[in-house]
Amino acid sequence: MEGSSSSRSDEDFAVGCMLSIKTTLGDEFDGQVVTFDRPSNILVLQEGLKLGPRRNIRFLKTNYIKEFSFLGQSEDPLDIKKCYIDLQSLQAREELALRQAEADAERIGVGVTTQAQGIFDALFKTLPVRWDKTSIVVMNEVRVSSPYLPENVIGGTPAANDRVKKVLELERRRLQTRGPGP
Amino acid sequence: MNTQQTAQLKSSANGFARRRSERESGMRLENKHQSGKLNQNRSMNAKSPSRDRLVYLSTCLIGHPVEVRLKNGSIYSGTCHTTNVEQEFAIILKMARMTKDASYRGSKQEYVMKAPSKTLIIPGKEVAEVIAKDVPVTVAGQSNELQNERHEDILIDSSISHSRHVELDRELSPWVPDEDDPQCPGLENIFDGPWNRGWDQFETNKMLFGVKSTFDEELYTTRLEKGPRMRELEREATRIAREIEGEDTEDLHLAEERGINLGEDFDGDEEVRFSSVIRGRGLDDSGYDEDEDILLDKRNTETFGDVPASSGAKTDHLHRGTSNDSAGALLTSSVDEPQCSQSSNGSEFFQSNTYDHCRQQADDLPCKSSTSDCNGRNPEILRVAQGHDSINASIETKTVAVDGKLSKSNESQSAENSQTAGFDRGGLLADAPSVTSSVKEMPPTEPEVVYVKADGESSGVSACRQPGTFASGSDHAGATSASSHPAVSPSSSLIGSSSSENSTLNPHAKEFKFNPNAKSFTPSHSSPVRPPSPVSDGSYYFTPNVTTLPQMHGMPVGIGMGPSYSGHQHVLFNPQVAPLRSPQPYFHPSGPQYGQQMNLGHPRQVLYMPGYQPVSSSQHL
Questions:
Q1: Where is the composition biased (Low complexity) (chain B) (predicted)?
Q2: What is the pLDDT of residue B468?
Q3: Given an 8 Å threshold on Cβ–Cβ distance, is B138 in contact with A82?
């Protein structure tokens, strides 16, 4: 079985094959086979036609392939000679990404709806805002609590309050014109 | 073994060996975070290339944002920390967020955000798919990525303005002024001459604050003698100016200024057209060398027009200057000349030269243009000149007239001196009359006269260093008494002082005697400012013999002789310069004031203190 399966695997998932795949999760995409690992049943596909150094990669377990169709045969998308790994740079990249992610995490409210998050993001562009549980605190003075309507703007000096109200209205309007939902 | 693997990773040239070590390194990482033992033997023995690829690609994901789809439909996003593709695709994410909750049935809008998990371990059994975008799979991708990220760290302006979070609510377009928007409104009024403006700042000040002003415009400029030849000179000046401005030029900025149309499809954005930074020319500030001379020559040609080659590049400059002078006084080709505008033609010549070059070469070789002739000294001077903004239009006007006259007299003089070193002719033209007079006074022969001119030039140039305080009058005075002072600007001021009625010369000063044992000054290329007193270095003596003159070709014609100038120029400071004064109608009587003011500029180079020069010089005897 292994012998035949290995040969079958080579046949089925030869490197460079273009496949159109539907997954059990509802995904549909086209990709080019970069490699297939029998022991783990992991199929690595490259999406898109770009042949640059950066590719969109998918690691798919073949168990979750609902169906696939063969589109064609192409060359090996991976040039072995150019494949090197610099662990240091990878780790540096990771650190950088983590720092960025932590900064981003500050902006994300916990337990708030996506709409609220959208409002927060909009305010974040022009005003110093932070989350306090589910309330948005602007300039450490003005609080905007759920459901983040102009009426919910509380606190701060009248001037600051008005300003926040105004910005909130504008942002809400803008969010609506752009279309409900991201 | 781990470090060994790392080293192996880096140094191994064998792709296959590398992948193997990568796999092992991958294992190493996983070991850090997973308690389970990995069966390394098995992986080491498995030589399947497909497995190698898998491991390679999954290792490429480290540090990259990935999306993990679980078999239950949930999706997590985070930064890939490590993977284990031994059996299933196990992955550990850092700062992971659930972007899609399979169990949540509510509407998207109400989806509740959750805090990101610092570390999220996803067992391989749960993983259905891992998606990563823009993964660098080759070396090229990796290096670029880091660079880009570093740039993002720095947050350059363009990345801020072209925000990634661009929500294009509106189409951005560059601003264009309204139809009826007056071009630079009000500016015309500002630049009206003071006689038109109807506002006298001094009067106002006096009225408001009772401040009595001691401002005398003529302190800062040459008094224009409205002689009978005024009209002639003006005409001549305008003619020359027109000539120069109408010249064709390769330089973008010059062309812009002169209004030469660059053509419809000129390839260059605003920066190329208007910036003073010259990019991509490979210019190097490290020191003076032949290349710079060549470049400077090229610049000179650009500014002054080609001249038939003569012996030596340096003399070329001078000859060029000469030919320009013969064309007529070279009055500022660009009106906004630095305040170094000196009445002397030569100096003017080089002033504009300098300035043009300064402008053209901006940061690169601001001083080198004129420095080609005078190594080492000019950068300092020129930079100063360049840095100063004060431009006295009146000076220029007066200068023009003066120069016109001078050039004319110079021409005859030049003809005489045609045989002498080009240098002499170069900047000294303007000083012709003074030279002539000095010639009469001094026993020196013709070459000497020329020499004096040079000094005058240098003094003119050094005046540059004292922007705003230099008057062309003093320049001429300087020319005359070029021989009288060791330092350039001091010399000019000194001359001025000597020539003026209220001389502040120290009557008790010891006469300067040339010290034959004085150390010859050789400018060091690295820095124009030399810690030892410039006085000692620049001991100048008035040399009667011609031989020294050729050596002076290093001196820029227009660039004032600073103390750092080549040592073989020695000017004998002769305090008894009274006879030199008289025939100079254009010498500014307020010369002596310059002495003090000049000191403020660059005390380093110009150690001129009225009356002290001779004393200090004599100390070297």
A1: 481-503
A2: 39
A3: yes
- For residue B603, say if its preceding peptide bond is cis, omega within 30 degrees of 0: no
Is B383 exposed, middle or buried (CB count within 10 Å of its CB: 0-12, 13-18, 19+)?
middle
Contact yes or no for B561/B428 (Cβ under 8 A)? no
Query: For residue B165, what are the CA distances in angstroms to A122, B66, B619?
Result: 10, 20, 72
Pairing of strands A153-154, A28-37: unpaired
State whether A24 and B128 contact (CB < 8 Å). yes
Which chain B residue shows the shortest CA-CA distance from A92?
B63
Q: Which residues of A touch B108 (CB under 8 A)?
A: 114, 181
| Whether A131 contacts chain B with CB within 8 A | no
Mean pLDDT of A153-158: 85
pTM, two decimal places: 0.38
Task: Mark which residues 47-106 of A lie under 8 Å from B by CB.
Answer: 52-61, 63-64, 78-87, 89-98, 101-102, 105
Pairwise CA distance, residues B290 & B272, whole Å: 27
CA-CA distance, B189 to A89, in Å (whole number)?
A: 61
pLDDT recorded at residue B176: 77
CA–CA min distance B54, chain A (Å): 7
Percent of chain B that is helix, strand, coil (3-state, to 5): 50, 5, 45
Residue with token string 């004060």: B390
Which strands, in side-by-side order, build the sheet including A153-154?
A129-132, A135-138, A142-144, A153-154
Q: What pLDDT, in 10s, does the model give residues B184-229?
A: 555 555 555 555 567 777 788 888 888 887 878 888 888 777 777 7
Sequence letter at residue A10: D
Q: CA-nearest residue of chain B to A44?
A: B54
pLDDT at residue B393 above 50? no
- Are the beta carbons of B123 and B90 closer than 8 angstroms? yes
The pair phi, psi for residue B267, each rounded to 5°, is: -90, 95
